[in-house]
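A reminder from the course coordinator: this example appears on the midterm review sheet, so study it carefully.

Given structure:
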């Protein structure tokens, strides 16, 4: 992290700039487009470094909107000849914006049982993970992003808060971040299901 550069998220929160995220964004552009970087000239890390150097000059004391970072990555890729990768970044950003705008989350109201729908907001998951599970900001944002991707992959226009909660718990379990989780070990011997049925009938 470089304390001299800050990033403003969509919810208005400010966080330090992390160049590793920018490198990952560049790599995602190459993966999505199928356009491999020319290892003899530039690498994803060098391209991300060019964006970082630009930000140090243009935003020394102001926070950079996260949307602007994606635009800069697209510009750097296009200007260095990786047009397909740059276009993949642009299309992914546009798709993600549309998905966040269209998706609704339904919550059942206790007093009358009716469902209330709200627009999708990843920051709610992030805040939940920080307050309820005491995760630090990098971990909570990572889990929240993975849950968001899982929800979008469902292709639904409306999801329930229960579904989002279960997906969040699944991610926490996968990363070993859910306290009190039990691991059931597989028994050495396998029981004959017919024998189980017979014993049940006898009782």
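Designed residues:
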């Amino acid at each position: 992290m470089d304390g001299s550069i800050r990033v403003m998220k969509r919810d208005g929160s400010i966080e330090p700039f992390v160049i590793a995220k920018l490198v990952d964004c560049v790599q995602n552009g190459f993966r999505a487009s199928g356009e491999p970087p020319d290892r003899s000239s530039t690498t994803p890390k060098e391209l991300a470094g060019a964006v970082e150097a630009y930000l140090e000059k243009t935003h020394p004391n102001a926070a950079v909107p996260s949307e602007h970072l994606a635009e800069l990555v697209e510009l750097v890729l296009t200007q260095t000849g990786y047009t397909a990768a740059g276009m993949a970044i642009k299309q992914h950003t546009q798709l993600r914006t549309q998905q966040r705008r269209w998706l609704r989350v339904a919550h059942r109201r206790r007093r009358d049982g009716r469902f209330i729908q709200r627009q999708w907001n990843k920051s709610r998951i992030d805040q939940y993970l920080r307050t309820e599970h005491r995760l630090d900001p990098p971990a909570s944002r990572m889990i929240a992003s993975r849950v968001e991707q899982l929800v979008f992959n469902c292709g639904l226009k409306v999801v329930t808060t229960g579904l989002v909660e279960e997906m969040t718990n699944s991610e926490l379990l996968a990363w070993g971040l859910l306290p009190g989780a039990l691991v059931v070990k597989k028994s050495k011997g396998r029981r004959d299901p017919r024998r189980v049925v017979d014993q049940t009938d006898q009782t």
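The first helix runs from residue 19 to 33. The helical segments are 19-33, 44-58, 66-79, 83-102, 122-132, 137-153, 161-174, 193-202.
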